Amino acid sequence: MDQSAIDALGAAPIASQSMWIGGRQVAASDGETFDAISPIDGQVLAPLPAGTADDMRAAVAAARQSFEAGAWSNMAPAARKRIMHRIADLIEKHALELAVLGVRDNGTEISMAIKAEPGSAAATFRFYAECVDKVMGDIAPTDPSVLGLIHREAVGVVGAIVPWNFPLMIGAWKIAPALAMGNSVVLKPAEVASLSLLRLTEICHEAGLPEGVLNVVTGKGAVVGSALAHDMDVDVLTFTGSGATGRRLLEASAASNMKPCYLELGGKSPNIIFDDAPNLDKAIAASAAAIFRNSGQVCVAGSRLLVQASIYDEVVEKLSQQASTMKVGNPLDLTTQAGAVSSDVQLAQNLAHVEAALSGGARLATGGQRILQNSGGYYMQPTVFADVTGDMKLAQEEVFGPVLGVIRFEDEAEAVRLANATVYGLAAGVWTSDLGRAHRMVKAVKAGVVHVNTYGGPDITVPLSGHKQSGNGSDKSIYALEKFSKLKTAWIQL
User: What is the SS3 assignment for 230?
Assistant: First the structure.
């Protein structure tokens, strides 16, 4: 990447934005807007339409009309495949533009964003493009006088609500498999990170996606998100975000048409270092990256570090040193290691968690302060707390910021008990040279993904599944197609 090209894109004005309904770019029906604020400097990037419930109903109606018309749902699989590959081609062509746009909107450091956002989104569209013409039905082993055919069909209209931390990546996780199965989609981006998804929608239309197949309504979750969740004509709802919102979506599903509701609700992921870790310095460096990259705003962040007692003090000391020397700053600078917190609201919540940890008896090893306040942006020091116990608020509640709690354990049994002692079950990490222990921990720890001697990096080929209150269903991999398809049996008397 070229810093001068990043700087030029970062300084470019952003035009007033529009929603996408029925293949057309439209304003909110009442003309209201809200400002997209950059966490880099607190300045307004562009006005966005503040969609209404009527706008969401119009988007759902457009999606239904497009699905029933069949321009996409009945298109030959090979033709859908070509369009999805063109979408991936265009994402790659505009990768730097998309990455910088997203960074200006949500503060992720550009060195991470270029891979995690357009890089991941392009790979996701390519993966599901290749699935389009490989999803087959089946023939049941019936009596010879009967032919039992099992068809796999699109569900219809998919409502997708995505968060602000990796909007392009997570948006692609929802959109691409839904499109691969022939569905139409209504997307509701996060209020604080809509820009890259609006640009992606433009790219999808440029690639040849028929009108009304992908619709985007921006605005407040309490207005347009609620309208989407309650709409009787939405067949499936998929969401990534907080547990509180997930519960409201389940209630909306029950109050409307009982649509399936697939939720990925974050976590409080344990990262467990045993004293036989094959390379302790590597484990410490990876553990720092697991919580401090993107300022801790990662659903699978290793926010609980469980360390065996014999190496506890050494790990805390080295980890604190790494945290204190990380470069936090302008996320458009290629040398920045941790960018901005997404909003002033999120920053305030992070700092409140620091105060609660201090009052709860945890020992602040490093960090804990807001920094670079003169920039106008929202920045926070990477923060390490030692002497954390499993019952502390810091060990139980998701912070979603650069705040790590380090917990001591004595043996494998205690590590398992502590790892499973929260309501969450999204991700985990295990560092050990003992192959038997590694397999035992993978089985014993209740999480959708368990990393062994690494943290982060699973690609599109494997699922991300929430256990316990981290959600249900799976994003990524071929298993995600199950959310966006339904089975139909044909029972034919011969």
Answer: helix
> Could you tell me if residue 476 is inside a domain?
no
Owner of token pair 């996320």: 331
Cα 489 versus chain centre, distance: 34
- Whose tokens are 């909003």? That residue is 343
CA–CA distances in Å: residue 301 to residues 49, 109, 294, 389, 448: 32, 16, 10, 19, 13
Q: Which amino acid is at 34?
A: F
Whether residue 311 sits in one domain with residue 169: no
With beta carbons less than 8 A apart as the criterion, state whether 467 and 164 touch.
Answer: no
For residues 151 and 409, give the distance between their C-alpha atoms in angstroms, rounded to a whole number: 51
Q: CA separation (Å) from 240 to 189, 321, 410?
A: 11, 33, 35
Query: CB 3: neighbour CB atoms within 10 A?
Result: 13
Query: Does an H or E element contain 110, and which?
Result: helix 110-114
Whether residues 395 and 365 fall in one domain: yes
pTM, rounded to two decimals:
0.97
Please state, for a pLDDT cut of 70, what percent of the chain lies above it.
100
Average pLDDT over residues 43-48: 97
Q: Which residues are catalytic?
A: 264, 299
Q: What is the 8-class DSSP label of residue 210?
A: P
* Residue 129, number of CB atoms within 10 A of its CB: 21
CB atoms within 10 A of CB 359: 9
Helix axes 167-180, 120-131, angle to 10 degrees: 10
Structural contact between residues 467 and 446, judged by C-beta atoms closer than 8 angstroms: yes
For residue 172, which phi and psi values (nearest 5 degrees)?
-65, -35
Residues 147 and 212 in one domain: yes
Tens of pLDDT, residue by residue over 105-115, are 999 999 999 99
Backbone phi, then psi, for 450, in 5-degree steps? Answer: -120, 115
Chain-centroid distance, C-alpha 373? 28
| 67, two tokens | 């699905």
Write the CATH number for 206.
3.40.605.10
